[in-house]
Structures are given as C-alpha cells and as structure tokens.
User: Fold Ankyrin repeat domain-containing protein from Dyadobacter sediminis.
Amino acid sequence: MDNLDQVILHAARLGNTEVLEELINRQVNVNTQDDKGYTPLIIACYNNQYNAAKLLLEANADVNASDFGGNTALMGVSFKGYSDIAELLISYGADLNKQHGNGGTALMFATMFGRNELVRILLKHGADRNLVDVRGLSVFDLAVQQGNEEALIILEEQ
Assistant:
C-alpha cells in the first residue's frame, strides 16, 4: 500500500472531503484496502461521514466491496444505525442480501443491535427476511434471541 492509499483511507475516516476530492482528481484508487480489507467507503460509512461516502460513491467506489470478513458498508451502517447513509448506499445499488463470512446480512445486524429504523428501511427496499446465517438462524430467530420485540413486529408487518 503506498502513501496516497493511506491518505485516502485516513481522509475517509475523518470525512475530509477536500482531501478526498484532491485524491480522486489524482486518480488514487477509491477501492484500495487496508490490512483488514476496509475500503475508504467502508471506513467513511462506519464513521458516519455521509459527505465523504457520497463523494466516494460519485467517484465509483464499489458500494458492495467487503472487508476480509465479508462485511460491507451497508452492514456497518446497519450495525451502527446510520439511516441516512443506508439510504445513500441503497440508492447506489447496495446489495441488501449480501452475506458476510458467517452468513449475516445487513438486516440481521440491524435486528441484533436494535437498529429498528434500519430494519424498516431495509425491508422497505426489499431485504430478504428468509435468509439464514451459517448456524441456520433467521432474522426472526435473532430478534427473539436479542429480545427485540419491536423488530419482530416490524418483520411481521412488512
């Protein structure tokens, strides 16, 4: 990884759009990965940097790129609860049903961590509530396991 790759990753973490714009203009790889497989988009999204994420997406960052564990930006924001960034990612074609290394999906993360607004958003856009993880657990099972009664209601309504 060269120095500019490290700079774009750091700028994404901080949401420094001026630096990101300069690096994009210099044609630095917007899909570079760090030692864990995190891309600038994944980092920006996980750190709630909406404007940086939008800029990276406009520069053709891979909305479905995953880290070395199979986690995507959409999974990260579903875990963190960032509804606005989830909508942004979905508008750029984020795969709602992509499964990470253990079979978890963005919908499963949102359910497990009580991010019920994300549960609504993901279902509204067509997330599959019938997928199961490597243990054979569905999003319904995870909601029960976590005591997330609101998610169970949302899952049954939508």
Remarks:
- The mean pLDDT is 96.
- The two ends are 45 Å apart (CA to CA).
- The chain is about 55% helix and 0% strand.
